[in-house]
Amino acid sequence: MKKSSKKKTGSRPSMSGAGAPKTVEEYLAGVPEPARATLQKMRAIIRSAAPAETTEKISYGMPAFHYKRSLVALGAFKDHCSLFPMGSSVLNDIRDEVKPYLVSKGTLHFPIDKPMPAALVKKIVELRVAQNESKARR
After folding, report:
1. Element (H or E) spanning 26, and its range?
2. Where residue 117 sits, what CATH number does that domain have?
3. Residue 4 — pLDDT band, cuts 50, 70, 90?
4. Count of structural domains within the chain
């Protein structure tokens, strides 16, 4: 069987192998506009809502935020961007507020050119922080 010589194209950086991003900056550099600007805005909102001890890393090939354990992650795809609350029970708690978005297996999909409202993102981050703090006390 002959391998295709065509390069894969898309709006998401490679998740594995030598070309996989090792930092959030590398991930974002590999995302085309307008998705890059959207993710950068979302990143700023998340950072403003998360505790100062929150760290960023690449997890599952995407930018992820960690506070005592996984908090939230972001991803860019061909037709949408996603926010992963890393705890789908949060989405049940705010079901009415996330109705405008496609919710799929604990993921919120939003347009590549339009970040989610800051107030909603902050609420999701704050709920995840509270969950992580309560689990850390156990």
Report:
1. helix 24-29
2. 3.90.1150.200
3. very low
4. 1
* pLDDT digits 0-9 by tens, 79-122: 999 999 997 788 888 989 999 999 887 899 999 999 999 999 99
Question: With the CA atoms of 96, 61, 54 and 33 taken in that order, what torsion angle do they form, in degrees rounded to the nearest 10?
Answer: -70
Q: Is residue 28 part of a domain?
A: yes
Residue 11 covered by a domain: no
Neighbours of 26 (CB within 10 A): 14
Q: Look up residue 17 and give its amino acid.
A: G
Helices 118-137 and 35-49: crossing angle in degrees, nearest 10, is: 50
Taking alpha carbons only, the member of 53, 38, 61, 44 closest to residue 111 is 38
Answer yes or no: is 14 within a domain: no
